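User: For my dataset I need records formatted as: sequence, then structure tokens, nothing else. Please produce one.
Assistant:
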Amino acid sequence: MSQTRSVEQLKERANQKVKQGVYTDALQLYTRALDSATGETSRELQRQILSNRAQTYLSWGDIYTALADTERALSAEYTQADSDKDLTAKYRFRRAKLLNIFCRYEEARAELEELRKIRDEQGQAVDDVVRELLQDVEKALRAPAGSRARQKADLLRAVDVSY
């Protein structure tokens, strides 16, 4: 069996664990798949595994590691000019959502702008979920200085260890 096939099988087993809600097993399988990847394993497959693992971390409640995996999937190491644009848009949305959770609103807005550019290149409009997130981000950015919302955001950014 080829190494790529073995990585794909680990990914599929992990996907099944996610569907069953067994996140710790899924995370271990995704990690094994990434650790098993070799030079013959495509970057796109590795990027998909990173993204799946990020979503699993998010579902499990570990937003810090979810953000780290999402950023790695979007890095130049894994995202190339010929990478699947739909997947890149999905990863950018996830990153924007996580940045919003961390109250890193400027970065979230920039990420949503990159997502919009991808959709424009594809001749597609952004969907309602993206528009809603952008509205939330814009609302947070307009919060008056000294308001409870601004104080909360400042506090969350102050304790954010992912910076």
